[in-house]
Specification:
homotetramer, alpha+beta, Alpha-Beta Plaits, six-stranded antiparallel sheet, 6 strands, globular, magnesium (chains A, B, C, D)
Amino acid sequence: MAKSKFEYVRNFETDDTCLRNCYIVVRLDGRNFHKFTEQHKFTKPNDIRALGLMSRSARSVMEELEDIVIAYGQSDEFSFVFKRTSTWFKRRASKLMTHVASQFSSSYVFYWKEFFGEDQPLLYPPSFDGRVVLYPSNRNLKDYLSWRQADCHVNNLYNTVFWTLVQRGGLTTVQAEERLKGTLAADKNEILFSEFNINYNAESPLLKKGTTLIWEKRDETVTKRMKLPNEEEREVAVTRSRRRVQAHHCDVIGEQFWEEHRDILEDDNC
Amino acid sequence: MAKSKFEYVRNFETDDTCLRNCYIVVRLDGRNFHKFTEQHKFTKPNDIRALGLMSRSARSVMEELEDIVIAYGQSDEFSFVFKRTSTWFKRRASKLMTHVASQFSSSYVFYWKEFFGEDQPLLYPPSFDGRVVLYPSNRNLKDYLSWRQADCHVNNLYNTVFWTLVQRGGLTTVQAEERLKGTLAADKNEILFSEFNINYNAESPLLKKGTTLIWEKRDETVTKRMKLPNEEEREVAVTRSRRRVQAHHCDVIGEQFWEEHRDILEDDNC
Amino acid sequence: MAKSKFEYVRNFETDDTCLRNCYIVVRLDGRNFHKFTEQHKFTKPNDIRALGLMSRSARSVMEELEDIVIAYGQSDEFSFVFKRTSTWFKRRASKLMTHVASQFSSSYVFYWKEFFGEDQPLLYPPSFDGRVVLYPSNRNLKDYLSWRQADCHVNNLYNTVFWTLVQRGGLTTVQAEERLKGTLAADKNEILFSEFNINYNAESPLLKKGTTLIWEKRDETVTKRMKLPNEEEREVAVTRSRRRVQAHHCDVIGEQFWEEHRDILEDDNC
Amino acid sequence: MAKSKFEYVRNFETDDTCLRNCYIVVRLDGRNFHKFTEQHKFTKPNDIRALGLMSRSARSVMEELEDIVIAYGQSDEFSFVFKRTSTWFKRRASKLMTHVASQFSSSYVFYWKEFFGEDQPLLYPPSFDGRVVLYPSNRNLKDYLSWRQADCHVNNLYNTVFWTLVQRGGLTTVQAEERLKGTLAADKNEILFSEFNINYNAESPLLKKGTTLIWEKRDETVTKRMKLPNEEEREVAVTRSRRRVQAHHCDVIGEQFWEEHRDILEDDNC
């Protein structure tokens, strides 16, 4: 078969290796999720089931791609950070981002029922688009995550007041939008507190801070059956260290989180 | 909230716009599908259910991304060709390939049961990786598709003889491999014919040629209830043209296919 | 010496291979040439010496880089077109454009005196910046050259009227600018003709059309001293074909030029 | 004029902005300098005039492009380092490297006579090719410069012994090459010392270490004529700080150089 005659087309592929010694961030965003959330009757302003499914899918990505050192998600987006020195897929941007997008999307469908049960079936396959961004320094990377968490805060405060005005205040969505035009964070907090007796600070950290996934080492004790030198068999307790993905809903803008988890980032001057 | 302070990180994103006036090909490949096919007991050498699911997922991608003019798949891979003049996602390579990878993967899980029924549940979410390649001329694009179809032929002939030797000839996989070492296409055809009375040419085109998906216009006649000028209502037959994704299992290496479907490719000198 | 310890830094270099089967255009533009032309007392609106030096330098580039099939220049810019199938420098964009920029710049200084003589010494080393653009089809490439020649025409007509108004009409530069605001090509032709009796169409093609450099084959007859079979020596006339860079100042927007020089461009469907 | 009709070709230009917060290194290498040095009778193993011209041309580049914080050269190559936060040419790689290549090349021809006098005229315009490499950390950048300086050392030691064997030892170039095959640095030092009484360590730092150009601030006292409050005029001595390019021939592999010039590099965690 004239295979070789066509094989020249391989040379049209171009190299997209990510610059060495930079953090590689892959961010996914839900496509047409406004429509998707309506058709699947997501509760407003936040649907806890949907946020759980996002985190579950992100965990599935981290378990497949071990060089991801931290992931951060909120609303219908999730960011995955590959360590500076990662050589996964020879650092080819296209492979990294499509693999993340693919694993996340198939997981989202696969685990749907675990979070939405039988009440709300998945009506059609959803999709996410992705991008790759490189960050050369620890400062840049922390600022990226801070940017996303600040975005989470701004959006969640807005959505919380908006839907409270609609659901409990009886306003139409147009009226609620009008009411909030030009208000600052302090104004929104005040509306919640004085009109609805809601203390925004007491809201769930999951909603205010989003979800941060990191690897954590745990000592596990398992029982193993072992053969002793005298040929006797006995059950022995064995302690071993295992890495697990752990979810946090804490502040990542300040330095405390990074001081408590010094092993996430590598040294800048390497 | 100090949102603006972090926003500078957006500028680290780089532009990956695809060169204008080139066909954009996104190819997906199954990841670790050797293991996946074993764990899900795919029949050898080909699992018709799995090929059907691949095509169904590819159709789902085409219906979401209308600028795809042709798609070609075989085994655990599928290639999608965006028309030269496409401006989807402003031709940004990352968006195009992640969207394709995501839509395909979520569809693969979503439609699994339609093809595998209750007998073979999906055990874990599979993944596909992708890449983007640009082709400047019609010749290059046809040669790309010919390359993939020639690859399909070579692999399918090999796999057909290999698994026939194992399943019907009683050889071990090691023996079958040894037997086929150094054989040419003619030798393999001869083994099939003289030892197992199989005429390879009579095998299913789906297996020999893979699957080509294109858009086809069909005239559909639908019945509509319309109000006449005299306020009377009557049922009227209305003919309208609809685009549908149609599957072919024919040769795309020769010119015939392209002559019969002249609207797929745009003129070179544009 | 600890050479190997540092050699890892080579891996930070990224690949910038130009897409195959596309024309590679390198365009150079003079840097701060407004100031440069004033300090070197270029005649206005055009300095024939300077245009000659630009062409001489461009020829020097073409003679060094034989895969350049056509070059086009006007004012302080020059574009060089590498053939589609060129493999110079493995099609690495950085190598191609820096080599062109370097050869052009050193030639500009080297040949300065040939064009400006002793009257106008070169006061400091000038510089040019460059860029690479790819064109997938013959239509695109011709349109690129047409774009530059249309730009030449528009600028030259404007400059011709502007400097005629200043030099012969006695206007200040501010008055001339004011006078030309909002005028169309026809208006400018009219000013030249009715006020200064200048027929713009009769102006030099060098100025109206710019300079197009292409390779041309010429038969040359040279005399060689050869030894005959009988050991006698005799002078023999030998005809050989030689490629030479030839300058044209003709229209490249219409099809005539391309029909007369069919060997410049390669076939689209290759 | 149908200018707009062609203007679409501008969109084929692609963005090549360098990743933020990385050092941008542009390295130039002489093209076909083996031939060039022979035709211009460069002295072996080093031609002091040629090295002076290289440095003079590099200084010309630094004075034009002020964001270059350090440059390092040896033999027929020179590297220029733009500061991390540079926004010259909007960090467009093509503009940066072609401008450097162009300025360097025109300077090389322009200053030739200053270094080679009337004895050795420049026979033809030489050229240099260039490339861009990004380095995310101070460690990476120092290692890049160390790599070049280690290369300088290795080559210069080899060339020194090689040409001593030829020029003073009477060996042919083939014999000298044979003699040096497989020798280590210590062996080469020993040959120089025991056979020719040359102490390599006492050789000129210019040759052993290459040339490092950095900016240095100097206080200059100039005399200015100033008007006093009582309208009297008087000459006044004014001290002002000026930046000048300064050449060094010292070690840049160890930390001492960097500790003495802390203002060259920016902080990593920025």
